Amino acid sequence: MYSNHILSIEDNPRDVALMKRIFKKHIPEYNLMHICDGEEAISYLESESFKLALPKLILLDIKIPKLDGLEILKRFRAYKEYLNIPVVIFSSSDLKKDIKEAYEIGANSFLEKPKSYLELSKTLPVLIEYWIVYNK
Amino acid sequence: MKEGSSELYPEDLKLIDCDKEPIHIIGKIQSHGYLLVCDATTLEITYCSENIDTLFNKSISELLGSSLESLVEDHLINDLENATNHVKLSPVRLHLNNEDILLIAHKTGNSILLEFENFQESQNAFDYQIQLSEVVTRLSEQNNEQQMCDVAVDLIKKLYDYNRVMIYKFDENWDGIVISEARDQGMETWLGLRYPASDIPKQARDLFLKQGVRIISDVNEAPVSILAHQGVERNNPVDLTLSELRGTSPIHIEYLQNMNVGASLTAAIIFKGTLWGLIACHHYTPKFVNYYERQSCKFLTQVFSSQLLLSTTNTLLEKVNESANLRNTLMKQISENWDISEGLVKGDMNLLDLNDASGAALYIDDIVYRLGDAPEERDIFKFISEIKKRSTQNLFQSNEFILDLDCDKDLIRKASGVLCVFISKFKDDCLIWFKPEKKSTVNWAGNPDKSFTNEKNFRISPRKSFEKWSVSQEKKSEPWQDYEVEAASVLRQNISEIILKKYEEVKTLNNKLTIAYEDLETFSYSVAHDLRAPLRGIDGFTQILKEDYYEELDDFGKSAIETILDSASNMNQLIDNILEFSKVTQYETERAPFDLAKITNDILDFLNVRLNHPKLKITIDANMPMLNGDAKMVTQLMQNLLTNAIKYTGKAEEPYIEVGSTLLNGDLFYYVKDNGIGFDQKHEHRIFKLFNRLVGEEYEGSGIGLAIVARIVKKHSGIITVKSAINEGSTFFFNLG
């Protein structure tokens, strides 16, 4: 059952705050839900409540406490029924090995976090639009 | 009865080479004694000397083929049967035919040789003992070779009363030189004379080595033939190697006759198993020295030999010790700052102290270091390649190195002798020592080239002339002594070990550095990355302030917000540059040919230069040669150079940038030239260093751009230089190796 929200797994509260504002201001039609800890994230993804309200898109950071973002992705992609939920890696890393691995284990996109707020506020709406509207 | 083995001795054989004369089976004995030979198992008499009948009152035909048992007593037979091969039995005094006779017997192969000579009452044993201990004492008091030899000849002369006693020393070619002499008054000295090796041929030297001492009692007396029993193999003549009476080679007899010698005594000086020299005694009339005297002479010579060995060994030990100390010093000097040339050449002690050389050179890491009276550098190179031609060993020595080389007088004077050790197997790095030419006069006892004269039938006969024949010796140095060669060899090993140790240390250090460097790269990479997050916070929340509260702020508040945003942006740029810089280091270059003009145009398009800087005039040489390198990196390089050029021509009246190629000292260089503010040429090295800026805040920049450029060039093993002057623009030249 899809719900009209986007799930962000991200530990940096400043980035969360900035993203929340961008959503509110530029794409208010979507809700942003966020989890800031790896273990919490995976237990949510594997829970019944997740099944009841599936996100339209998952934004996943790599460096997050307790469980690494790529590890979360690997476990999440084991659920065949969720394969059509796009996962976009949203990280400050631009290491080749991270990018390669992310795609290998089933990321739909790999996006380096924009450097400035202005770039971020332009990027996020485009990203959402692409994965949700065009990808339908 | 047949003629015996004496026939085998080729009396008129056409001898080509004196070395081939089979003197140990000469088939004759000297006339002062008698010989009987019997089969060691059957005791049947197989050979006898022609004069034997006078000793036993039996005819030769009676004796040959009869048993020895009928001639000598049973206990003697028993001793003979149990004799050890090649060991002489104690002599036995016999009374035969009213004469006192001494029997000296030994076994050789399957034969027993019994030699008889007149018995002479030997000296009082007590006197002899006193004399002997005196001799030993006197010898041991001497501490150098010459003194010992002089003492020895005096003693022998006194004891045996020959007209002339000499010590004759062999050199490396077996030529002999008289190094010490005692002679009767009125005789001409032979001291210092040299005799060619052919005078004492190899087989004679071999016999001396085995026998130790030998006399010729009367040079002019005809020798006595050895006769064989019928049926005894003629091809198996009596081996007289250990015989006391062995007849003398007719060539040698002639040789002695030519010198008017009537009798001789010769004792071998044996040094570590080889023949070092001879004690040679000459008498001008016949002279017999009995067995006991001969044995004591042998003993004396042995004492002399061992004293000589001891003294030589001591000298050698001293030298070895000296050189070991020196080597330690040199090694210490080297390890002080890990510099081989420094340690060997520039310290308190140097290479030259290691031996008696007058000059030395060290060739290492393509540099020649010269010490003392060493040849010029180009001659040293010539020598090294010549040495490599002559030998593949890591040690080379010669005291006549220059003999076959075309050298000028100065070089001959400096470097007739050469000792060289190669430090490395794969390079020509080496140490060389030089000894100067030693012009000397060699006095031959007669012309050595005419030691033998060919007479009719080509029979060789010894030379007749013993007149002093002087030859001057050139292009030779003093020989390299064993200890000098040894010291050089050990020094070579020490240096090799040091090099190996140094190599290992450098390798370890290098590994550590590589790890440290990688750590540093990773560190700067992650630090730069981690700075992004808080910076995004600063930038983001300031932006929010600006969006939501800007109008509520006064002018200062507004400008403060702008400054924060500006600073955040600058910092982002800095982080970009640092990341870019560390990426250049991390990535390997992938070379391919490309067109620099095209890349330049792409960059200008990408940066929108023509639109953003309408005043700027840019010339690009479209015919530049293709560049071979990593296109991605070179794009980065050009982008930095162009950005700089644009930046620093920003205030020029007619800003101008030129990209092209040119030759500098014969090498192709590409260049980016501008007419911007330029800088003082003295800063040319500083500007390529990280965070080194020559300009103030009026020009934006992180001080990383040119460091990136330099790194990219270095990655390609290329060269970058800059020509500039204040207010006259800059030109950056680079190539990619």
From TrEMBL, chain A:
InterPro entries membership: CheY-like_superfamily, Sig_transdc_resp-reg_receiver, TCS_response_regulator
Keywords assigned: Phosphoprotein
One GO process term, biological-process aspect: phosphorelay signal transduction system
All residue ranges annotated as the Response regulatory domain in the record: 5-128
Domain of life: Bacteria
A family per Pfam: Response_reg
Residues that bear 4-aspartylphosphate: D61
PANTHER family: RESPONSE REGULATOR RCP1-RELATED (PTHR44520), TWO-COMPONENT SYSTEM REGULATORY PROTEIN (PTHR44520:SF1)
UniProt-recorded name of the protein: Response regulator receiver domain-containing protein
Organism: Leeuwenhoekiella aequorea
UniProtKB/TrEMBL annotation, chain B:
Taxonomic path: Bacteria, Pseudomonadati, Bacteroidota, Flavobacteriia, Flavobacteriales
Transmembrane segments: none
Domain (Histidine kinase) ranges: 526-737
Class in the EC hierarchy, top level: transferase
PANTHER family in UniProt: BACTERIOPHYTOCHROME, TWO-COMPONENT HISTIDINE KINASE
GO MF term set: phosphorelay response regulator activity; phosphorelay sensor kinase activity; photoreceptor activity; protein kinase activator activity
Name of protein: histidine kinase
Domain of life: Bacteria
UniProtKB keywords: Chromophore, Kinase, Phosphoprotein, Photoreceptor protein, Receptor, Sensory transduction, Transferase
Gene3D superfamilies reported in the protein's UniProt record: 1.10.287.130, 3.30.450.270, 3.30.450.40, Histidine kinase-like ATPase, C-terminal domain (3.30.565.10), PAS domain (3.30.450.20)
Domain Phytochrome chromophore attachment site: 144-302
Keyword match Kinase: yes
Family: In the N-terminal section; belongs to the phytochrome family.
Reactions mediated catalytically: ATP + protein L-histidine = ADP + protein N-phospho-L-histidine
UniProt xrefs under CDD domains: HisKA
